[in-house]
From TrEMBL:
<keyword id="KW-0813">Transport</keyword>
<dbReference type="InterPro" id="IPR027359">
    <property type="entry name" value="Volt_channel_dom_sf"/>
</dbReference>
<keyword id="KW-0325">Glycoprotein</keyword>
<feature type="transmembrane region" description="Helical">
    <location>
        <begin position="290"/>
        <end position="312"/>
    </location>
</feature>
<dbReference type="GO" id="GO:0046872">
    <property type="term" value="F:metal ion binding"/>
</dbReference>
<dbReference type="GO" id="GO:0016323">
    <property type="term" value="C:basolateral plasma membrane"/>
</dbReference>
<feature type="binding site">
    <location>
        <position position="630"/>
    </location>
    <ligand>
        <name>Ca(2+)</name>
    </ligand>
</feature>
<dbReference type="GO" id="GO:0045202">
    <property type="term" value="C:synapse"/>
</dbReference>
<dbReference type="InterPro" id="IPR005821">
    <property type="entry name" value="Ion_trans_dom"/>
</dbReference>
<feature type="transmembrane region" description="Helical">
    <location>
        <begin position="481"/>
        <end position="499"/>
    </location>
</feature>
<dbReference type="InterPro" id="IPR002077">
    <property type="entry name" value="VDCCAlpha1"/>
</dbReference>
<dbReference type="GO" id="GO:0042045">
    <property type="term" value="P:epithelial fluid transport"/>
</dbReference>
<keyword id="KW-0851">Voltage-gated channel</keyword>
<feature type="transmembrane region" description="Helical">
    <location>
        <begin position="914"/>
        <end position="936"/>
    </location>
</feature>
<keyword id="KW-0109">Calcium transport</keyword>
<feature type="transmembrane region" description="Helical">
    <location>
        <begin position="111"/>
        <end position="130"/>
    </location>
</feature>
<feature type="transmembrane region" description="Helical">
    <location>
        <begin position="652"/>
        <end position="676"/>
    </location>
</feature>
Length: 955
């Protein structure tokens, strides 16, 4: 162990510790040495992990019973606490308690450690001396896994970025709380005491009559039948009485502000809010309840809780920018240092080489060595210049191969020199080594060809198809075929891997991320084949070969956005892994806390539910289910009922609220923030690449122009039609785009008539066309069409969908003729003014006009058949259903409201990125579905007769 080192500046602590121990005190010196000694740190870390394992091994039984293992494990509690006490005491002795800078309680992690130790000591003392329920005190033990965060630096970084986002998150939290309180107060006014009436049997007035699985709120008012929507009891068998606890044992209600706030919070999370809406409909009628619930969901859920994602995304991108700037600075500094060192080293080498070359005794072979070394140094310096530029995995691999090629394929002379100097052949082996070297070069050039790449891709695709066709109850010949195909494909992929390794060399092969991935997948497939032969069964690992389809993105020069998306996702893995560990720690702590609070408590008349906290694995799964937001409210109801119901157990709802808020809305939104950040990163990469391509094109054109000018100056006549035409084309395109943008921006003022003939008949001076142009461009023409669209939409909404031939529908049908007539006149006027399709700016050259035309023509065709009254119109339900396209009319408003059009254009533009993400998403969905088929096919059946064990027997 050595002894304490003498340090001039102590790393922590103040002038005295606990007002007693000075800096020179040997006790303080030794304690500081111990707390900084790495084995001590590792011992504490192992103790924390062991304590987590012990807490997880506990099994909670009903009625506070304990298993033999749990009783033994309880005895270890004292030992763990002693170790944590010793650690805290040593740190306090070394650093001091609280009064000076760098003392023990000035660090947030130490405060947490101290809190855990104190609550643990209180629990042990209370167990020995006081007879009380210690569950709350014992539950503080679950904070011990958080001590891991203070020991792992990468976790601290992620946690710090989340803590930095807490200030704006707190403001959003207060805003959400304010909204919850307002809606809870409104709920109190509307629904207080309304959910306590239900139907009771006339035979036994204390027995509620169930509608389906549970009771339903009812309305005892005689007017309820007329108001519509309220649930009325069957007065022959039951009566509506106000003595029911309410839905979910009275937990879901608006009886006081606490219950109302919990119910509103549940609605905001969008879990089970429809059930609450229908209960209020049953109690009061369905006419006006939507006025309360729809704004609650729109404001609370769609808007406010999504602000959390915005804040986290902003903080995460700021953190990323800070890290990138720091990395860029370090890279520049490293590059400068490396270049200076390299230049001085090369100068020294060159001087030494000049001296050696000048000497006459130097042999030709040694001179050849020096020349080769110079060539390689030149290649290395070239590579050094490109250091720091971000490269995708495919360019890395290609550059590595090119360097390899530069070293080994320097023309015929270089190759011969290389062979002479490197292989040093002796006797008969010389020819063999030369042939082997040439053979390897030939294989390497073959591996890099396009046909070899596509051959491997086709193999991967065929392998994927073979894996996907496996299904339950498949014929024997298909099983045999797939069995042998598995070996064939595995052999081919192994051959490809070994050929590439031989051609490129292991070092260059493993430099590419895709090659490393290939190697891992193939090794996993080999392991699975061996396992299924020896033990039987399958892991579903072979489907991971479908991930090799991602290699398509490697060479797609034409789909850069997709390639950049994949690269960004791969780059984000490091931050996602840290976050995953933090998420696991969070789930672990809440699972342990849930075991302390609810372990062995979920005992109901119907048995113990699937989601409970009795054992650690089930508790982990329950917490994970709550995090995803799926049926979290059902678990909360069970937790509250197990602790005494709505009267005594409501305090336990805090556990579930905190879990949903911190887990679902904070930690899981960090994943979304990372995804948004990566998408932005991918878009930046794509934009940068496109800019680079444009710049390169412009440079080429400029160089061509310069060459032409130089040649013309020399008096050489050159036909430079192509290049100048290309340059002028590019310029004219840009000008056209700019003009279009200007035209879109400047919308005010009358539009000029198009300088083309309309339908080959009407010239720009034709009076009919000029009249149509004047009408279409009238100031209030668009406003009038908007009014007609609105009236048409209202008429569509007012139709009776049940009784097709009702008087209301007949009247609305006449209105529909009028609206269709207006839209037809509008279309014809625009066609006369603009022309149909053949010239720029004509009617059908715009998406919105095409949609207008489709709606009008379909309506006119269906009216034509209706009016003719022919049997063809009656039978052709397809023609009749064309009238359904009338519902597209409200979309006509988008074109006429500029802000709506901007939002719509934004949505359409974002669809490009959505397509890329969908491709990756569908690939992962496919992989997991195939793994599911391999693991679970034919397993999801059950039999009511316990003596039958197979699906065939159970008939």
């Amino acid at each position: 162990m050595g002894g304490p080192k003498k340090e001039e500046t102590p790393p922590g602590g103040g002038p005295t510790s606990l007002f007693i121990l000075t800096e020179d005190n040997p006790i303080r010196k030794y304690t500081r040495f111990i707390i900084e000694w790495p084995p001590f740190e590792y011992t504490v870390l192992l103790t924390i992990i062991a304590n987590c394992v012990v807490l997880a091994l506990e099994e909670h039984l009903p009625g506070s019973d304990k298993t033999v293992l749990a009783q033994k494990l309880e005895k270890t509690e004292t030992y763990f606490l002693c170790i944590f006490c010793v650690e805290a005491s040593l740190k306090i002795l070394a650093l001091g308690l609280v009064l000076h800078k760098h003392s023990y309680l000035r660090n947030i992690w130490n405060i947490m450690d101290f809190f855990v130790v104190v609550t643990g000591a209180m629990t042990i003392f209370a167990e020995a001396n006081i007879d009380v329920d210690l569950r709350m005190l014992r539950s503080f033990r679950v904070l011990r896994p958080l001590k891991l965060v203070s020991r792992i630096p990468s976790l601290q970084v992620v946690l710090k970025s989340i803590i930095k986002a807490m200030a704006p998150l707190l403001q959003i939290g207060l805003l959400v709380l304010f909204a919850i309180v307002i809606f809870a107060i409104i709920g109190l006014e509307f629904y207080s005491g309304t959910l306590h009436k239900t139907c009771y049997s006339l035979e036994d007035p204390n027995k509620p009559v169930k509608e389906g699985e549970s009771e339903t709120p009812c309305n005892s008012d005689k007017e309820a039948d007329k108001s519509g929507g309220a649930y009325v009891c069957n007065y022959n068998t039951s009566m509506c009485l106000e003595k029911w606890d309410g839905p979910n044992s009275g937990i879901t209600s608006f009886d006081n502000i606490g219950f109302a706030m919990l119910t509103v919070f549940q609605c905001i999370t969008m879990e089970g809010w429809t059930a609450i809406l229908y209960w209020t409909n049953d109690a009061l009628g369905s006419q006006f309840n939507w006025i309360y619930f729809v704004p609650l969901i729109v404001i609370g859920s769609f808007f406010m809780l999504n602000l959390v994602l915005g804040v986290l995304s902003g903080e995460f991108s700021n953190e990323r920018n800070r890290v990138e700037r720091r990395m860029e600075f370090q890279k520049c500094r490293f590059r400068a240092m490396f270049q200076t060192a390299m230049v001085s080293y090369l100068d020294w080498i060159t001087q030494a080489e000049e001296v050696i070359l000048a000497e006459e005794r130097t042999t030709e072979e040694e001179k050849m060595h020096i020349m080769e070394a110079r060539k390689r140094n030149a290649a290395k310096s070239k590579k050094l210049k490109s250091l720091g530029k971000s490269k995708s995995t495919d360019t890395e691999e290609e550059e590595a191969e090119e360097d390899y090629g530069d070293d080994e394929e320097g023309g015929e002379k270089g190759e011969e020199g290389y062979l002479k100097t490197r292989s040093k052949p002796q006797g008969s082996c010389a020819g063999f080594w030369r042939a082997e070297k040439r053979f390897r070069f030939w294989i390497r050039s073959t591996v890099k060809t396009q046909w070899f790449y596509w051959f491997v891709i086709v193999l991967v695709f065929l392998n994927t198809v073979c894996v996907a066709v496996e299904h339950y109850g498949q014929p024997q010949y298909l099983s045999d075929f797939l069995y042998y195909a598995e070996y064939v494909f595995l052999g081919l992929f192994m051959s490809e891997m070994f050929i590439k390794m031989y051609a490129l060399g292991p070092r260059i092969y493993f430099e590419s991320s895709f090659n490393r991935f290939d190697c891992v997948v193939i090794s996993g497939s080999i392991f699975e084949v061996i396992w299924s032969e020896v033990k039987g069964g399958s892991f579903g690992l072979s489907v991971l070969r479908a991930l090799r389809l991602l290699r398509i993105f490697k060479v797609t020069k034409y789909w850069s956005s997709l390639r950049n998306l994949v690269i960004s996702l791969l780059n984000s893995m490091r931050s996602i892994i840290s976050l995953l560990f933090l998420l696991f720690l969070f789930i672990l702590i809440f699972a342990l806390l849930g075991m302390q609070l609810f372990g062995g408590q979920f005992n109901f008349t119907g048995g113990t539910p699937e989601t409970n906290f009795n054992t650690f694995p089930i508790a982990l799964l329950t917490v994970f289910q709550i995090l995803t937001g799926e049926d979290w409210n059902e678990v909360m109801y069970q937790g509250i009922i197990s602790q005494g119901g709505a009267k005594r157990g409501m305090i336990y709802s805090v556990y579930f609220i905190v879990l949903v808020l911190f887990g679902n809305y904070t930690l899981l939104n960090v994943f979304l923030a990372i995804a948004v950040d990566n998408l932005a990163n991918a878009q930046e990469l794509t934009a940068a690449e496109e800019e680079q391509v444009e710049e390169d094109k412009e440079k080429q054109l400029q160089e061509l122009e310069k060459e032409m000018e130089a040649l013309q100056a020399d008096g050489v006549h050159v036909e430079n039609g192509d290049s100048s035409a290309a340059a002028t084309k590019a310029k004219s395109k840009k000008k056209e785009e700019e003009k279009k943008q200007e035209e879109e921006e400047v919308t005010e003022g009358p539009k000029p008539m198009l300088p083309y003939s309309s339908m080959f008949i009407l010239s720009p001076t034709n009076p009919i066309r000029r009249g149509a142009h004047w009408v279409v461009n009238l100031r209030y023409f668009d406003f009038f069409i908007m009014v007609v669209i609105s009236l048409s939409s209202i008429a569509l909404a007012a139709e009776d969908p049940v009784r097709e031939n009702s008087p209301r529908n007949k009247i609305l049908n006449y209105f529909d003729y009028a609206f269709t007539g207006v839209f037809t006149i509008e279309m014809l006027l625009k066609i006369v003014d603009l022309g149909v399709i053949l010239h720029p700016g004509s009617y059908l050259r715009e998406f919105w006009n095409i949609m207008d035309a489709v709606v009008v023509i379909c309506a006119a065709v269906s009216f034509g058949f209706d009016m003719s009254g022919s049997s063809a119109g009656q039978n052709l339900s397809t023609i009749k259903s064309l009238r359904v396209l009338r519902v597209l009319r409200p979309l006509k408003t988008i074109k006429r409201v500029p802000k709506l059009k901007a939002v719509f254009d934004c949505v359409v533009n974002s669809l490009k990125n959505v397509v890329n993400i969908l491709i990756v998403y569908i690939l992962f969905q496919f992989i997991f579905s195939v793994i599911g088929v391999q693991l679970f096919n034919g397993k999801f059946f059950y039999c009511t007769d316990e003596s039958k064990h197979t699906a065939e027997e159970c008939q």
